[in-house]
Here is the input.
Amino acid sequence: MSLQTLFRRFDEAIKLRRYKESKELVEKSQIILDRIRDKIAVPHTFQFFPQGSYAVGTGIKPAEKGDYDIDVGIEFNVCWEDHNPVVVKGWVYDAVKGLTEDVRWRGPCITVYYKKGGEPRYHVDLAILAKDRHGAGLRLARGKQNAAPPDREWQPDDRKAFMQAVETRHPDQNGEQFRRVIRYLKRWKEEQFPREGRSAPTGLALTVAALQWFRPMTGRGPSADDDDLGATLSLVESLRANFRQVWDQPAQRNKYRLSLRFPFAPNDDIVGRMSNEQHQQFYQRVEKLMEFLGEARRTGTTTPLRKAFGSEFPEK
Here is the structure.
């Protein structure tokens, strides 16, 4: 059996259906949205839109004891210039508070957690947004519940353009390979990085990297299938090549660090908050992944792929 066939089987094992294809996810989100509509005063109307990996088809099933992350944007029909972002977030928090045992006010969103059998099952991140006076230019309400004025802001936010770019950058068959490769990297991240803390790159960071450096690849011959191993290896090589050495003063030595700028507003470095040591660990794991993929390429065997992606990658 070809490695490409095994990659396809691996993808089928780990991938999640899109938001609109999952009845359970739609129902959970709808309960929250109905609650918000019921609780928020009539003048404050809004519309919602699914976002994140569920919306663009790059989601994976969580690893053991992991939970599903559902992202929903709530766009209020108010002018951000006329409202305190913490106050607007408070409308949503007050509406969903008590819906489950665990509702948290976080800096960039309000999160509703669901459990099943005492274990985390889902969490729904609600991003609260508003436009300017002219009905354009989305802004994200940022700030914790009791944040001082300097720690509250309406951050420029063009997540819709980002999702559109993910959807359209590679059309048709190439787009399917593009999304598969992102899913492979997300599973690699879950297998190779600690699950606690913030030492791992986010799924968003891996998606931005793919948006920049993914190149579709097929095998040889007029009827050749996609070459997911080659496309993944090419992306990982580009990722590694974009790390740069920086001087780490506490360690008194150079460490590798990556800069990965979000291509739309707010145009921030989405791995910028990772420490130099976390970037170094990221680099070393990328190097190891490149070795595993290269070995699989040379030998045609699955052992290095199972080391990289875990036991869900088929043996044969």
